[in-house]
Automatic annotation (TrEMBL):
Residues 160-263 form the Pyrroline-5-carboxylate reductase dimerisation domain. This is Pyrroline-5-carboxylate reductase. SUPFAM superfamilies: 6-phosphogluconate dehydrogenase C-terminal domain-like, NAD(P)-binding Rossmann-fold domains. It comes from Streptomyces caeni. It is an enzyme of class 1 (oxidoreductase).
């Protein structure tokens, strides 16, 4: 029998995942979505040819439920699911900070739960999804989760104790690179280049650097040293980065993201 997968709370990451699953060959007829606003449900129906249903119906009809609402909305969503969910379903949560234990407690009855932290590059099949099993999730549940998220990028299993750190690194990670590109493009403007040219130069440099990081097998330090000629331009830039504490700022930034992920576990809104 065909397995149905439902995405509940189909916003930015839910839609990115949905589109990736369809690209990877899932039939829209085997996918369900839920949305809080009727106009959003209609948009998803039209764009992807999937059926939009209530959260209760998704719990009754789908074998696998992917929860992609904000951490702050998860309590209400779980309350809507709890009366309808049974232990033969698999619940996958993509919500930052929310622990499998807290989901298990709300859903009860030994429902298997897997926690996943994906990132937005699932949109281009280059996602990084970090996966941890809850206490009732089986090897088959983990394999099924990997099948879904592996269709849109890489997956990595980690102990759940590392999920908040992974959220800081790869969940939020793309944002840091976008931020860097933004700032470097501004630098191009300061140096007198038109914005579109500056953007293209930086983006292609980022792509080239990313492919070298992935494929060369070289340590990033070696790759950077290869760009840094004696008495050249790069070392002048590196000295400024060090002077302005950019390395320390990055370490502090990711620590703050990790701490925020931990705080979301306790329902923090601020
Ligand atoms: N964005 C990212 O890069 C990543 C996000 N995540 C996690 O994914 C989750 C979603 O984030 P993101 O996509 O950015 O947020 P969005 O706000 O874009 O998406 C959340 C969606 O859930 C909907 N929603 C909320 N409550 C319900 C409900 N009870 N029933 C149905 N739909 C509901 C919202 O509806 P409405 O439109 O009405 O608000 C919204 O469309 C978060 O938990 C986040 O931690 C994980 C990895 C990466
Ligand atoms: O900013 C956030 O909270 C979400 C989780 C990881 C990426 N975006």
């Amino acid at each position: 029998m065909t397995q149905k997968v439902a995405v509940l709370g189909t916003g930015k990451i839910g839609e990115a995942l949905l589109s990736g699953m369809i690209r990877a060959g899932w039939a829209p007829a085997d996918l369900l979505v839920t949305a809080r606003r009727p106009e959003r449900a209609e948009e998803l129906r039209t764009r992807y040819g999937v059926e939009a249903v209530s959260n209760a119906d998704a719990a009754k009809r789908a074998d696998t439920l992917i929860l992609a609402a904000k951490p702050q909305d998860m309590g209400r969503l779980l309350d809507e699911l709890a009366p309808h969910i049974t232990a033969d379903r698999l619940v996958i949560s993509a919500a930052a900070g929310i622990t499998t234990a807290s989901i298990e407690e709300r859903l009860g009855d030994g429902v298997p739960v897997v926690r996943v932290m994906p990132n937005t590059p699932v949109l281009v099949d280059e996602g990084m999804s970090v996966i941890s099993a809850g206490s009732h999730a089986s090897a088959a549940d983990l394999a099924h989760t990997e099948e879904i998220f592996g269709a849109v990028g890489k997956t990595l299993r980690v102990p759940e104790s590392q999920q908040d750190a992974c959220t800081a690194l790869s969940g939020s990670g793309p944002a840091y690179f976008f931020y860097l590109v933004e700032a470097m493009t501004d630098a191009g403007i300061l140096l007198g280049l038109p914005r579109d040219k500056a953007h293209d130069l930086i983006v292609q440099s980022a792509i080239g650097a990313a492919v070298m990081l992935r494929d060369s097998g070289e340590h990033p330090v070696r790759l950077r040293e290869n760009v840094t000629s004696p008495a050249g331009t790069t070392i002048s830039a590196i000295r400024e980065l060090e002077k302005h504490g950019v390395r320390a700022a990055l370490i502090a930034a990711l620590e703050a993201a990790r701490d925020r992920s931990r705080a979301l576990a306790s329902g923090s809104n601020s």
